[in-house]
Amino acid sequence: MKLYNLLTALIIVLAYTSCDSDDQSETEAVGTLQLKFDHFVGTQKMELSEPGSIEFQYETADGEAFNISKFGYYVSEIILEGPTGEYYEDEQLVSALEVKGFYHVLQDEPSSRFITLSDVPAGRYNRVTFKIGVSESAVQEGAAGGVLDPAEGAWFWNWNAGYIGFAIEGTAQNSGQELVEGDGWTIPEKSFALHIGGWKDIEVAEGENQKFVNNVKTIALQFDSDLRVESALDPNVHIVVDLLKMLDGANINFANSYSIHAPKAGQPLAEVLPEVFIVDHTHQ
Amino acid sequence: MNAMHATRLPIWWVCCLLLLMVACEEADEEAKSNNYKFVKPRHFPAPTYNFDKNPITKEGFELGKKLFFDPLLSKDNSVSCNSCHIQSTAFADAQQHPLSIGVDNRVGLRNAPPLTNLAFMPEFFWDGGVTHLDFVPINAIESPFEMDEKLASVVEKLNANDEYRQLFQMAFSVDEITSPLMLKALSQFMLLMVSANTPYDDYILGDVEALSKEEVEGLSLFRQKCGDCHSGELFTDFTYRNNGLNTDFKDQGRALITESENDVGKFRVPGLRNIARTAPYMHNAMFTSLEQVLDHYDNSIQHSPTLDPTLEKGISLTENEKSKIITFLNTLTDHDFRSDRRFMNQQ
Questions:
Q1: Which residues are CB-neighbours of B55 under 8 A, at least 6 positions away?
Q2: Which end of chain B, N or C, is less surrounded by CB atoms within 10 Å?
Q3: Residues whose CB falls within 8 Å of the CB of residue A136, separated by 6 or more in sequence, listed in order
Q4: Rounded to two decimals, what is the model's pTM?
């Protein structure tokens, strides 16, 4: 008897959904929108140096000279919104075979600095939000492929499992780092490595202190004017990432802060992330 | 539904019904012969592992097993997972290696725990630094004290091996081997390491004869004296505590993960299944026998700022009580698990 009911229900659902898809045959109008990330150090465009190089082209507000040899971050959970309720959420998928909605933006891989969102419903948009880092829901999916595969260059902490959301490496005049030589690797003298990770957001029992820091930050940016998305258009948003805002905002002093590899030490840098990303301009 | 309704069923409905029934019967048959299925023991908590994301198959499990026994995963092809996790000790380390030995005979920092009931654990390692089983092997492969290899090189070596390419194709329908698939296969192998078949389990599940009078007394003493921390059917509450092994901790334990001074010297309360077979004991392998462990709780608790408050005065135990508790702990040995052919390397 139950089976009969079940089958009836199934047939009804099937019939219903197939009718539904008939209605949708005149597909909804969609278009693309591109986010472009440009990396700056203050007013200078970011250029990478060789690791260990002691030519310093940048300076912090405190006058500390430095250069950059590696720079990048993860962008995820992108959402677009418009003035009259337009809404688009970039699909998130984390699995061994496929990862969607996570972007590893790297200074030394120019193509990674362009994120094209497709199938965005046609309409007007004036706001983008995204996360810098990889949040709990993705970490807890377990081993993942694509840009989250550590064998393919994903930034992953083995000992405190999770992804490094943002990383800056280079050399600084005042860095306290001494030369370290390992088996097949070296840490150059005066180098620095600031790795920001940490995703645990655990509710604390009463009377206990929060033990973990969640350094995955949400960035919300308003556009300078509404952008129209339509199939025939090619709108894009230029986002400037100013590393100096980060170093100065967190008062980084390379003599002490040259080696950050754990969540708590990275927290001051993560806190200023929302000021580091700015919409420079948009193109219709 | 009454007979009247049934007669009104169109013929194709009946066909559908028949098909379904046949399918159900086949599934039953399969369950009987399929020992690649994860079965939660009745008295265990819900598993923490999400099997939907990595359903266990015969091919995946067998591939995971091959990887587990293969020294190809290490830098100089000398060390496999099985070098430190041996079935006869419930996949803990061999007794002659208090601290595990890796590539170039480098001595590790911690005692290798047994690998049982991993599907039920919320966090891994003595400090809880890894929160998903899939990620555990990355540590073993890349640690200079263990296999000292790079994940990317392992993937390269696997892709260069025709047999592995074929096995990954069979398990995951892929032409190219990637690290997440290797990790999923290892998880499939380890997830089936469920140990729940001991005299204690028979007793808990209703066979009152399964434990002797002395063992039952040992059980109730254990619950009373040790049950605060070693609680539940896995004999751990999965908290991190300092049980007074030292006054000062070279290995900071949980504090490495929380970066909090309040956690220095705290380690995960370990489960105690198969404990009679997993000596030496504690994260630093400082005790070689259960007698030493009980003497420790009774009279040599070391005081330090993070010592668990319940252990301030130690746990006073008479010699008779100690021996009863040990008698009980011996009932946690799962002989079927230790001789389960599924986990053996049959090559």
A1: none
A2: C
A3: A199, A200, A201, A214, A216
A4: 0.88
| Residue A133, min C-alpha distance to chain B (Å) | 17
Residue identified by tokens 């002691």 is: A54
- In the CATH scheme, what is the code of domain B51-195? 1.10.760.10
Residues A215 and A263 sit within 8 Å (Cβ to Cβ):
yes
Asked if this assembly's ipTM is beyond 0.90, the reply is no
Pairing of strands A217-229, A123-132: antiparallel
CB B26 within 8 A of CB A68: no
* Residue of B15, B121, B134 to mutate, testing the A interface (most A Cβ within 10 Å of its Cβ): B134
Q: Quick check: A142 and B132 CB within 8 A?
A: yes
Is the preceding peptide bond at B280 cis, omega within 30 degrees of 0? yes
The answer to whether B135 contacts chain A (CB < 8 Å) is: yes
Cβ-Cβ contacts under 8 Å, B258 against chain A: 211-212
Contact present, B91 and B65 (Cβ < 8 Å): no
- Digit-by-digit pLDDT tens for chain B (347 residues) are 344 444 444 555 544 444 544 444 444 444 444 589 999 999 999 999 999 999 999 999 999 999 999 999 888 888 899 988 988 888 887 766 666 555 555 556 789 999 999 999 999 999 999 999 999 999 888 877 677 788 999 999 999 999 999 999 999 999 999 999 999 999 999 999 999 999 999 999 999 999 999 999 999 999 999 999 999 999 999 999 999 999 999 899 999 999 889 999 999 999 999 999 999 999 999 999 999 999 999 999 999 999 999 999 999 999 999 999 999 999 999 999 988 989 998 75
Considering only CB atoms, which chain A residues are within 8 Å of B151? 150-151
CA pair distance B160, B171, nearest whole angstrom: 17
Contact B107, B78 (CB under 8 A): no
**Could you give the 3-state DSSP secondary structure of residue B87?**
helix
Q: What is the DSSP string of B208-251?
A: GGGS-HHHHHHHHHHHHHHTTTS-TTTT----EEB-SS-SS-SS
- Structure tokens that stand for A37 in this block: 């990330």
What are the residue ranges of CATH 1.10.760.10 in chain B? 51-195, 199-335
**CATH entry 2.30.110.10 includes domain B199-335:** no
